[in-house]
Amino acid sequence: MQAGLEARKILDSLDLSLEERKGLASPIDGSAMPGLADSDAKAVDAAIAASARAFPAWRDTPAPVRGELVRRLGEVLRANKDALGKLVTLESGKPLSEGLGEVQEMIDICDFAVGLSRQLYGLTIASERPGHHMRELWHPLGPVGIISAFNFPVAVWAWNAALALVCGDPVLWKPSEKTPLSAFAAESLLQKAVTDFGRAPVGLSALLIGGASVGEALTRDARVPLVSATGSTRMGRAVGTAVAARFGRSLLELGGNAATIVAPSADLDLAVRAIAFGAAGTSGQRCTTLRRLIVHESVYEPLVKRLKAAFSSITIGDPREPGNLIGPLIDGHALDGMKHALQAAGAQGGTVWGGEVQQGLYVRPAIVEMPGQSEIVREETFAPILYVLRYSGFDDAIALLRNVPQGLSSSALTTDLREAELFLSARGSDCGIANINMGPSGAEIGGAFGGEKETGGGRESGSDAWKAYMRRQTQSINYGRELPLAQGVKFDL
Ligand code: NAD
């Protein structure tokens, strides 16, 4: 069935009938997806105003009760996992197992957030003053603007929304203009949970459809104290600057350029599998996609040979078919970007293998052997291109890994304990994510997710990432009858 028709059927099954409006072409077969109207400036302003009005009531709702709404969201997602997962596949072109995996990630973060709703712990701190104690308390922050990218069209929203909601913050979501339908469906599922819950203020959550200008409205508006933005470094530079100009807070999850070091002691069977999924999975359209392979000279030739054989056997085609491991690129712009990068790599001394267009937006992943870490290797091209570099000393491999502007994800394949520990030490990987004996992509929600340098420095999802969605207050309480001053200062009247 045409992807556009299938999408409409799924929306109908979710009771979300849309007006007849032609939307974007599905990357799967070019058929027109159902279209959604953009939110105009008035609608964006009204949504922000409603969000600001909803804040006091939500702030005053006890956190475990807020968790009950997120628990219900998790239940609605469980009940509609198939429909939403398929819609993600139809719109983004990722294989169905990954579309479903994305919804599973949403369910997982809801479970995490429900537990968190009873664990928004502060500290008690010893006071230097007699008859005093100090503590830190975390308070809700206010409306959170969420700007998301096309490649995880719903999971990234859930990472932000589940935490923001238990932290007491309303949410305003500006999804990618390339994947509005998955966002529309996910937001409607949240609205179902809100209706069942029955105690949420009007305006607690809103969806704002449109392009960069809608995102810009969120970044400029002082009623939105936190903007959490996922996407390219170019976008993050604009968002970070605009939010900082009004002293707002931004949480930036930007481009990556992940690398894996393959040491002489690496298990090569495991390496081939880890590298193939890391570099070619999701058609190279993950922020954690493996883009740079740094291989010890002693295993370089056999590994590259095995990788070419593995890449040749990757099944490419309609992502709805279970046998296909990778689907299409998102659009013609992405395809042009891949062609341009392969040309530039050739001009910079690289030897290109693969990368041919099969048909439409379907491409064979490319392996490019490079004489050094040239300009194009240091850029993020959002497509399945694996640059391979050679090293002789482990310190040189780490230096190559670090010598790029981005700092999201990394891994080392080694069974040498000293190399593994060095890689994980302060002298090793400079990324937010560092793995041993696995690829750099495919994170779990339990850990904090994000990266350094031009990746933006933000952390979301697990661990203590929730703190970004709250404001910290240091409180001092005097339970005595004296008024001693800190540092022994005297001010006796
Ligand atoms: P993109 O930067 O083109 O768009 C991302 C979002 O930002 C979209 O919703 C877009 O409308 C919005 N936007 C663009 N310019 C804006 C502006 N000036 N102000 C406000 N909003 C603006 O990215 P994309 O092509 O959708 O996604 C791919 C990129 O996202 C890659 O660079 C990838 O590495 C990155 N990414 C990062 C992470 C992470 O967690 N670090 C996760 C997923 C994707």
What is shown here, in short?
This protein is of the alpha/beta class and 493 residues long.
Properties at a glance:
Aldehyde Dehydrogenase, Chain A, domain 2, binds nicotinamide-adenine-dinucleotide, 23 strands, alpha/beta, 493 residues, 7-stranded mixed sheet, Aldehyde Dehydrogenase, Chain A, domain 1, globular
Descriptive notes:
With 493 residues, the chain is α/β, with parallel strands linked by helices. The chain folds into two domains: 271 residues, Aldehyde Dehydrogenase, Chain A, domain 1 (3-Layer(aba) Sandwich); 179 residues, Aldehyde Dehydrogenase, Chain A, domain 2. It has 15 helices and 23 strands. Strand 5, helix 6 and strand 6 form a beta-alpha-beta unit. The longest helix is centred in the first third of the chain and has 21 residues. It is globular and about 80 Å long. Bound molecules: nicotinamide-adenine-dinucleotide. The site of nicotinamide-adenine-dinucleotide has 29 residues, from helix 8 and helix 9.
Q: Helical amount among residues, as a percent range?
A: 40-55%
Strand content: 15-25%
CATH topology label of the largest domain:
Aldehyde Dehydrogenase, Chain A, domain 1
- The largest sheet has its strands arranged as 12-15-16-11-10-18-19
Which CATH top level class of the largest domain fits?
Alpha Beta
Let me know the largest β-sheet.
Answer: 7 strands, mixed
pLDDT < 50 stretches: none
Q: What Rg is obtained from the alpha carbons, in whole angstroms?
A: 24 Å
Shape call: globular
The H-level CATH homologous superfamily of the largest domain, spelled out, is: Aldehyde Dehydrogenase, Chain A, domain 1
Question: In angstroms, what separates the terminal alpha carbons?
Answer: 85 Å
Query: Mean pLDDT, rounded to whole units?
Result: 97
Can you name the CATH architecture of the largest domain? 3-Layer(aba) Sandwich
Number of domains: 2
| Total number of strands | 23
Helix and strand composition category:
alpha/beta
Task: Report the bound ligands by name, code or SMILES.
Answer: nicotinamide-adenine-dinucleotide
Number of contiguous helices? 15
